[in-house]
Structure prediction request, 364 residues.
Amino acid sequence: MTIRERIIAMFNGEMPDQMPWFADLTYWIAGQRQNGTYPREYEGDEGYLKLHRDLGVGIYLFPPSVYYGKRDEAQFQSSHKKEDDLDIHEIHTPEGTLRTVRRYCPISTSSAPVEYAVKTPDDLRALRCFISAETIHSSFDNFKRIDELWGEHGIPVLLPPRTPLARLTVEWAGITNLAFLVADYPEDVEETLQTIAQKEDEIYETICRSPAYVVEFPDNLSAETAGGLFKRYSAKYYVKRIKQLHEAGKVVGVHLDGTMRGLITELANTSLDFIESITPEPVGDVPVEELRTFVPEKTVLWGGVPGAMFAPPFTWDDLKKHVEKIVACHSDSGRFILASADQVPPNGNIDFVRRISDMLDLKE
Prediction:
């Protein structure tokens, strides 16, 4: 079987010949580029594929989208400026300005918000204005090109926008601001979530017509922050979108890269086909041996290898034993895709990816 054939077999309820092995290398790549150490042979679309082929690992992120959005630039002007390590982004709308400030950390090759755009009911109103003004257009050619390029060495997983609650939390408000807004202005929050959901109607109609086979909500969930809010604001929305995508012949998953207890079962009960970026102990909150006890037998689990284990203080011996445990516990189920969870970090040992491929003796 090829890598693509193995993963499709799992989604069809069949047993693959071997456990598939995937890894998200994009964070590692960003770190190498920053340090000037990323090999030129791996640049571009063909180079990205070559990197995965050379490491013997499946490729699934990040294919081109199948839609794009537009707004009237005269009404919605944006600006960026740098102040030392801060990136200040302002979006000017007819209902007010949305201001986000992010701080960049060169050591981790990453940035994080220090000020979220949405803090008040007025900001929610400006966000609703911004979201509703977007027009959605389809574009399938680039996705088809990458699908053909990757061929049997993987499968492109299409990422729609985050679902409304995750979008509001991760991109616009942050969990602290959102918690206060939910407590003090629940009607404004619900109106904003509904505005996002209505705009996503157009996006999902496009996705259903698209050539994508696998669709994954990129919600970056964690039970620590999304548990109770998910039941209140997201569960029914998931059921609606999953039903819509299933009727269009799509396989549907979600990105859960945080703690699992109190959330993973709720996710599985929405009829998701797979849950991706499963992060067990020693980084997450569930032992490898117990992962399947939280989900129905048919649910495919995707992940298992914490990204942190590719970097110090973990050693190859630590990682090898961890992978051996996953294989021993889950290879017979035919419902486990071995993968990094979620990313190999910039200081990770990329040779460990190749060694895992060698352990599994993967062949196409």
